[in-house]
Amino acid sequence: MSLQFIIAITEHRNLGYVLAPYLVEKKGSNTFYSVVKKIHCHNLDDGDYAYSPTEKKLVSLMEKYSNENLLDRFGNRGGLNDFFKHIDLDTFTKQVVPYIEKQILKCLDLLKEDSIPLYRKESKYSNLYEEDRIELCYRDTSAVFNFERLEHETRYYLTIRYHDQEISLQHRNVILLTNHPCRLLYQGKLYFFDNLAGNKLLPFFEKNYVSIPRSVEDKYYRTFVLSTIRHHQVHAKGFDIVEGNPEKKAILSLEEDQRKNPRLMLKFRYNQRDFPYIDKEMQAVYLRKQNGNYTFYKFERDKNWEKDLLKSLRKMGLVKTSSGLHPEGISDVTSSEYFYSLINWLNNHRQEMEEAGIEIEQHNLDRKYYTGSHTLNIEISDESDWFDIYAYVNFGEFRFPFVRLKKNILNGVREFQLPNGEIAVLPEEWFARYRDIFTLSEADTEHLKLRKHHFPVLENNLGGVHKKYLKKFETLTQEQPEAPEVPQKLNALLRSYQEEGFGWMYHLHQHHFGGCLADDMGLGKTVQTLALLLKTQRKVNGYPTLFDQVEDDKNGKNRQFSKNHQPASLIVLPTSLVHNWEDEILKFAPSLRYYKYIGARRRHKISMQDIIHQHDVILTTYGTVRNDREFLKQYQFYYLILDEGQYIKNSGSKTYRAINDMNASHRLVLTGTPIENSLSDLWSQINFLNRGLLGSLAWFKREFISPIERKNDEEAQKKLQQLIQPFILRRTKEQVARDLPPLSELIRYVDMTPEQKKAYEAEKSSIRNNILSNIEEIGLEKSAFVVLQGLIRLRQLANHPAMIEDNQHIESGKFNEILRMLSILVAEKHKILIFSSFVRQLKLLAKEFETNGWNYSLLTGQTRDRKKVIDDFQNNPDNNIFLISLKAGGVGLNLTSADYVFIVDPWWNPAAEMQAVNRAHRIGQDKKVFVYRFITEGTIEEKIQKLKEKKSSLAEKFINSNNPFRSVSKDELMHLFED
């Protein structure tokens, strides 16, 4: 048996004409084929025929419109009869028929590729004859649409051609197999019309032409006729169709889309007809009616010209999307800044687009925007203590001072109205680049005035101008500027980093800028400053001007000094550092005459004018300046130097205001901790040094404190660093480690004695209950005093129960361990610094030392003669122990004879402990330093230590906040009092 696979066009009683697959057989000498079976997916594997992949694919496609599959895809409930009986005509026409035609078209495309025969089969016959075979005519088919405009009507008819033969369809047996694209079966041939819808042929199956009355012809010509001319070949009588090369322009339109979102749309204008670049239609047709006559213009769009223009815009940075064009890297079309980015792009590329032949237009916008080029020209004069900035803006024909845009720049307003009513959109980069200049400068109607210490603002924001105007400041921005010669009168050999610090301060001095030397403690800030004072000492004929001739007036008052006179420099210190500075001056700069302006009788012996005239340096304290503010502000000093400058960190304090009232030609701050709690600490010190460098405090909070401290804004950090970098020099011990002795830090955990533990637990329970009760009654923040009081009592019990009156008889585990270790170290002749927050603790230790016969020194806030106490420890070989309260001795002490440091009661802030450690671990130390921190296990001390090691949020709040109870939670707090 010889079987053959064929496809047949057959009529389905519900679906109309469809394709179906069959196996047929020709027997013997028969001239016809007999149908063996209709093929379905389920009987492909019967084994009676080997199907090719194409044949299997055809069966699968035709199976998709089997009754069962159609029911499954489009039906709801019931069987096949119900499906075809109840399906509505709209669903059938718009969903079912297109779905079936889609499968049929796929099958016909496969038939074009393979030699699989196609037959016409009547459903009631099972034999197929040669005359039933269908020829596929998929080449050289065409349809010509004919329109004839007459006096009272327009006639329309269709001419079908195959090769050069015209085919008449009227009154013929024609089968429309698919509508669009049209597949038409006629006289044994299947014609393929790829650009023709079959429904346009239907009228001509019954009539020669279609008549359109004159009354509706206008609408007919503007719709059907125009569309037909665009897509098909048309023969016209009674009106004209003009074809040829049109005038063309490229338009980049700034407009809104249907969703009111802004966009740039590229349009190609042919003979006044616009085609968006996303329009795929390459045949263009438009209609003009004049004096009752219709003329259609038809042309091909210039595809290569359009591609070249689009390529030009891509090179300019525009990206193509389905809705329009937008600048590369900008895609959020709903953003308010997006519209401005489009206009700025047009501003920046106007000339390039003109050269490319692209015009700019605006459509559907509520205002007219300026889309031309713009320029900003800047000139600078620096003849005075200011930079005078003359800047002018050009928007096309309009030119005006840049100062007029100050409000826009400071308030972030992008739109500025030009005299002709157009809206200019200011470039976004102007806001980032010039906002600081406007903020920090003074303005008049024509130009800006910027203080010289703001040269980093010019350097970072005005680009090329700094080479011309900022060359003189190179020494402040170079990493290693040429160092000045160290004064010969300095009795010290400066280390390399100290020479660098001295040179840096001297360069600031030459430019009349204030500076903050923020080296770590122990790196020799004092000796660097003394070198600066020696270097800047003014001389006349080779001698200091301290003893220039003076003349009294007739009353012996109001002395007039020589114009060459250099007044003394005022150095403001914590009280504890006065003797340290005195020692350093005598040791390293004995040629400097100094005066201590301290104590109750500070003004009794000599007038301040004489003091200033007869000395190089005046040492005083912050308290003295605060108390003598009105008196001291009358005088002019040469340098105003603040040691431990963090004393003025609170800009609202009396100390800050008093210091800022002092008059001096130069200013300097020395501190190891320029920022203790907040960036506002930095603002206070920088504003003292260079008034206005960081703007107002309100501006500084808005621009830096809030973004950096709350959001960790890296850009704000970078910007702040650029502003202050020339005026702050900070070196850590790690950076100059080769110049420092080694340091070993250990934590010694100790147990409580049984009685101590019992007393501690009882007190902890009582405190916890008391705190909880207070929190419930008045809230956490108002309970701060009760909490702090409770923490202090627990700390005292953890150190020594005897610190609380009722526990004098109870011993302390920590206390005993400290004494044990001290007995060994004293015997080995080591020197030890012992720091505690509690003076009572120090006194308990001192009592035991006296019992043991150990010599010691004691420094607290009550100590009168600090210098004597310090000298005794430093120079007495039999005095091995120095008891120091953290508050009184955390700064300003140079105790390099010690090689052991005991931190008896570590607490929240490690910075305070390191200040204590730095009393011994500093320049001049030639021994390895050991640091022991004593922690009582099972107490509040151990909890705090673990929180610090983990860098917990609770620890950070207590370390970094003046009032941690504003941000700490009840649960966090009560965790400290848990078992």
Euclidean distance between termini CA atoms? 97 Å
Q: Sheet with the most strands?
A: 7 strands, parallel
- Tell how many strands the DSSP assignment holds: 47
Q: What's the total helix number?
A: 32
Q: What is the class of the largest domain in the CATH system?
A: Alpha Beta
Provide the helix percentage: 25-40%
Radius of gyration over all CA atoms, rounded: 48 Å
Please state the overall shape, judged from the principal axes of the Cα atoms: elongated
Task: Give the spatial strand order of the biggest sheet.
Answer: 37-38-36-39-40-31-41
Number of domains: 6
* CATH architecture field of the largest domain: 3-Layer(aba) Sandwich
Structural class: alpha/beta
What do we call the CATH topology of the largest domain?
A: Rossmann fold
CATH-level-4 superfamily name of the largest domain: Tandem AAA-ATPase domain
Pfam families: Helicase_C, SNF2-rel_dom
Organism: Prolixibacter denitrificans
Keywords: ATP-binding, Helicase, Hydrolase, Nucleotide-binding
InterPro entries: Helicase_ATP-bd (IPR014001), Helicase_C-like (IPR001650), P-loop_NTPase (IPR027417), SNF2-like_sf (IPR038718), SNF2/RAD54-like_C (IPR049730), SNF2_N (IPR000330), SNF2_RAD54_helicase_repair (IPR050496)
